Amino acid sequence: MNLFNKILKDNESLFLNEIFLDPSFTPPKIEHREPENEFIATCIKPLFQKRTGKNLFIYGQPGIGKTLATRLVLKELKEKSDITPIYINCWENNTTHKIAIETCHILNYKFTHNKTTSQLIEKIISILNKNPPVIVLDECDKIKTTEDSILYPLLEKIYKKSIILITNELFFLSSLDQRIKSRLIPSQLEFKSYSLQETENILKNRIKYAFQQNILDEDSFNLILQKTFSLKDIRTGLFLLKEAAEIAESKAKRQISIEDAQQAIEKLKEFKIKNSLNLEQTEKEILELIKQNPEKTTKELFEAYTNQTSYATFSRKIENLQKNKQISKSKKQGKNVFSYGTLNQ
Question: What is the domain range of residue 144?
């Protein structure tokens, strides 16, 4: 059948090191985020002087470097001090108990079996009061609303610390219990979208390390660049670069053509749909509801939603889906209505 005739040999791969196209990879330097890095470090610096640090609320659109910049600061912190860095992804650990378990793992405390959440938190606090921590709760808006009590003991019982909250959603602070807000009192740091020139610099730097030389022509790169910039999401650009190279390799080509880049963009819809699998359950249900009830207003969709939630929460979930480009909003007879189908735009 000759299924494997059109294939590049090991030494002909277009990739030099594809890890540089992985969205979770932290490069040695985060371009165009130096002021943000400095601001994060400033909030932590009092810990070096045996004082409590400042708490920080970081927000901005997805895919613009919030997590990468913060993790780079934590990496340098670990290398240059005995301050304890703790990074928790709250999308993966979205309850108090899961956060407590993950924190124990980071602290190398192994005796978690059969312990209650309260017992784990008490142990965490006793460890962290011996060595001041920087605690980062990334995607903090994904913590279940009935479970945000993890913040209260961290704020109340750890003597010296910096707590950093990262989210796409500015509303998260207003959703917190007043007892938590009065203790948190964070500085705020907005990550703004990259300019076209900054987006170009970032993608070119990743290309330099990810690919062999001269495999991507200017037209192909510009097509990917423009798509990335239009969506304001660097992760999209990394996906397109990797996908275009894999498409070219599947054809045993030694360069990425504009046709390969166009095919990668066509696959962007599939990439976004896969990402939608990571949505929390309520957002999945609302997304399915919009698929089945196109061109309905928020109120009409809420009335059709059978699971119990407040209208305010339902509206925020609608906004999340729109910001993440899972749905689109348009005007119909003077009303804002929603449809499923902006994934490939």
Answer: 34-190
